[in-house]
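Lecture notes, unit on protein representations.

Consider one protein chain, 243 amino acids long.
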Amino acid sequence: MRSATLELIQHDQFASSQPANFNRLARVYRWLEWFSFGPILSQCRRAFLGEMKNRRTALVIGDGDGRFTAQLLKQNPHIVVEVVDASDAMLRRLMQRAGLNAGRVHPHLADARQLHLASCGFDLVATHFFLDCLTTIEVESLAIRLRRSMTPDALWVVSDFAIPDNWYGRLIAKPLVTALYLAFRFMTGLTIRKLPRHRDALQRAGFILTRQQKRVWGLLVSELWRPTPVANPISLSQKAEAD
């Protein structure tokens, strides 16, 4: 797997655990997703595809078996995609799914929390159902590094689970999300037990939410973020140390 444009750093102080092992799910991931949520997760990933037609250099983190990457490549014949995943089995499935467009994909087998992102000039970043594998602090740390490698007009597309602040969130969404975390803990060794506050983390890292779509009464969200002009965002962890 390539590592020319993206480099590993020795240690990220905010990476609190080993990445989950999704290798055993690579062949069945699509069917697990379909039996649990039908086509809705795929709809979340495709929510803002229309916004990506003129993008040229993308970073896709944790795309699993590569359905989003394959769609992005088909829609945009000029885009080059750097793909990061901690599962070699998932990366192989992604490259197979890319088909004739695989030459425009550069795969990187790595823990995204351990990446050093140089000034690569990404005008698109996509994290679909990936941030929920991180803590809030880890999301912040990643977001600050991502922002430094993105163009001023870049887009960051996020799809993820959410818990609405109402009776549905308390009685249905939260127990369902807890059950999903328990299932993935058993299947992959994922140690995270609750959703990160990714919106707080992205805002603190210098991003602004510009569009949002909700599905299943707010359980699933698709979001479009852009970097703000802030030069040196201060993370929650840095603020806590200062206090």
